[in-house]
Hints:
seven-stranded mixed β-sheet, six-stranded parallel β-sheet, about 25% strand
Amino acid sequence: MQAWRVHRNGEPNEVMRLEETDRPTPGDRQVLLKVLAANINFPDALLCRGQYQVRPPLPFTPGVEICGVTPDGRRVLATPALPNGGFAEYVVADEAALLPAPEALGDAEAAALHIGYQTGWFGLHRRAHLQVGETLLVHAAAGGVGSAAVQLGKAAGAKVIGVVGGPEKGKTAHELGCDLVIDRRTEDMVAAVKDFTGGRGADVVYDPVGGDAYTKSVKCVAFEGRVIVVGFASGGIPTPALGHALVKNYSIVGLHWGLYNTKDPAAVRACHEELTALAAQGVVKPLISERVALDEVAAAVQRVADGASTGRIVVLPGSAR
Length: 321
């Protein structure tokens, strides 16, 4: 089969190579899946760089989530077992962790209704307890993780402020349903949030960016607000000023969705049932900006790494260019 492999760490377009290799062999309680669609995530770029919290042995294949088909014909969502990730024609995955692909979604959309949406759901509902009528501030609102949080926030009855970088991403955020869109490159985010909320600030901040985004967020978080720390796409890991959190009375809440797979897998399945229902109702639908063939993956991962993409880029191994 064909698979993208990383033999040394570095930028995706420099270290990823498309190679002929053997199909992976399922271990105990694992299943071989034919990949129908593989969603590109920012962690795939971090894996290439050697900067992710998990460092698989070299060489490895990136690709952390797929929609695939089992030998008995079931269409499922899976997180492939590294070092044999999803940017390949076949993967293996743990049988117990397979989730049924939503019937309302095609392969590309289904592949993207997994990690990003699960992270959003757990962040907004389990960790932040977002309430109807509250104001949700979402950073990188036009990106894969941010766009999921925007849709889930609207579904929960919140007013959503989306922060983006540039007018094109601003247009996307408006189309996703943001009540206010702030271009961080040209606008004063703190002033805009306070103006929109009548001085109160955002009740919940969803931050997959870190760095300056976090620093500005805590300047416009509301009384009893919750800042959900999802990731550090900017590369900057902020150091929280705990005295500031005490004086302003807000919470800093970490979210590592992957832990739920081992600590509370039943909650993951329940979340998937909720997301499947929302997809069936048309309330949420992953924003797919590009569909690429297998031979285009390295360039596509690099676009995600550079922050040059909107929504999700999905790999379709069966397509030809």
